[in-house]
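Title: Comparing notes on inverse folding

I've been comparing how different people in this forum approach sequence design from structure. To keep things fair, I'm posting one structure and asking everyone to reply with a full sequence. Here's the target:
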C-alpha cells in the first residue's frame, strides 16, 4: 500500500510491529522519491519523511520486543 506523499499520516497509537513496519516502509519510499527530487521543496519533504521514520523506529523496537516476550 503506497499512500500519497501529501496524505501520509502517522497514527500515534500502540501499533503492532507489522503496522509500524508498513508505515516505515511507506515513509522510506516517500523519502527515496523526494531525495531524488531536484528542488529545495523536495529535499525538505525528504528530510521530513526521514524524520518520521526516525520517530517510528523507537516505537517499532518497543513493539517488537513486547511481541517477542
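Reply #1:
Here's my take.
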Amino acid at each position: 500500500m503506497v499512500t500519497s506523499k501529501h496524505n501520509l499520516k502517522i497514527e500515534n497509537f500502540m501499533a503492532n510491529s507489522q503496522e509500524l513496519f508498513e508505515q516505515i516502509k511507506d515513509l522510506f519510499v516517500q523519502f527515496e522519491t523526494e531525495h531524488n527530487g531536484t528542488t529545495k521543496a523536495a529535499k525538505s519533504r525528504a528530510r521530513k519523511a526521514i524524520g518520521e521514520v526516525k520517530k517510528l523506529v523507537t516505537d517499532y523496537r518497543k513493539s517488537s520486543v513486547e511481541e517477542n516476550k
